[in-house]
């Protein structure tokens, strides 16, 4: 009678399979981790380079526009000496400035052209001008750089202007240098770059989001205010983002704002640029790892076979004894439990690699996916750590007023952009070492290390005033209601601080919203006004 009618898997096969799988899994995780790290490094490199390049170009464009404004102001001064500039002199002055301007024109307050150079400028002496741009120049009567506008002959133009006053300081009209945006001009020499190798390109926008310079001349004059980088520049911000346009094409974008010109410069690179180096990196990693992988697999199988061989010998001996009932000596068995040690070492090695990968994943989940701020888990951990320490700190809790109306009116996508806009503004008013976080929904906050309640109130007010004075992505102003607490005077535990900050924040909402309240055990109007007064005195 056969006690074991059917053989199962041999132990050497099971153990060898586990070791091979462990080695393969470890190798795959290592290659994948290197791939992810390299990809992020490439993305960060493009973002940093584009942001730095945008800043440099914005400053250069602002400087050249400042020089152009000075040149036009100088021509206005020459005109004022004699209350005129004859045509010959104007042509000489244009010759000296034609590197800056495509044409120069003098217009009186009745919008009649007095002089113009060159003859191909598109306007003639005695011609009557019209349009909102000209009317605006008559009204403001100050040096001014206009928004891009289309002339009657279909050209997109920017004017650099200076008012004209006679010797009795009576307003006469204005003198303007023109920049033809769709022809060769001085700005192209600064902004136009050869990025054909990786597809990067530069474009510039005016304060209302109209394109002033673009490699594709057909886009000059079009409005891009809806693009994320453009509306951030229009808000006077500078930074870097990973941006997906309406054609679902992703770019690594750097943007910068120039205060002198009120123009913004955007430098962006298509995300597809990193696909080739990443693919090459992956291929090289696999090719370099393959010989080591094969050697490791072979060595692992041989060692496993030798380690488990005694058990295999014992199993074969048992089968022979059952089949033949022969009495034969039991082969010597040495290191009977060695296979367990080998398996343990292999699993432990694999586990360590997996733990490193899990730690990396946990670090990546510390941020809020929508705003990039610290998430609730990160906030709870940080607040608990700070409460254990002896260093004082303050906390601002804030809530977007009437945020449900934004979602109901403009949709949740716009609501998300409003929260991203708030997150950017929070980072701008906070310091290095402070923690900006999203508490949940439309509720946010800032942890301010080494900060007292008065300083925290100033930061909260600065944030509130900046939001109240800047148009959000919804096209409207948003306001926030804030509550301020400090450790340890307003609480020594996270629960106390959060509860008191919420209480102060809801006091702000009850008293009309768009305000900041410092927590007190009995919050009264008079006490709160005293805190505000003290904060204002310290801020001064």
TrEMBL record:
Keywords: Membrane, Transmembrane, Transmembrane helix. This is Sensor domain-containing diguanylate cyclase. The chain crosses the membrane at residues 12-35, 286-308. It comes from the Bacteria. It comes from Paenibacillus kyungheensis. The keyword Nucleotide-binding does not apply. GO terms for cellular component: plasma membrane. Residues 391-521 form the GGDEF domain. GO terms for biological process: cell adhesion involved in single-species biofilm formation; negative regulation of bacterial-type flagellum-dependent cell motility. Pfam families: GGDEF. The lineage of its organism: Bacteria, Bacillati, Bacillota, Bacilli, Bacillales. InterPro entries: Diguanylate_Cyclase, GGDEF_dom, Nucleotide_cyclase, Rev_trsase/Diguanyl_cyclase. GO terms for molecular function: diguanylate cyclase activity.
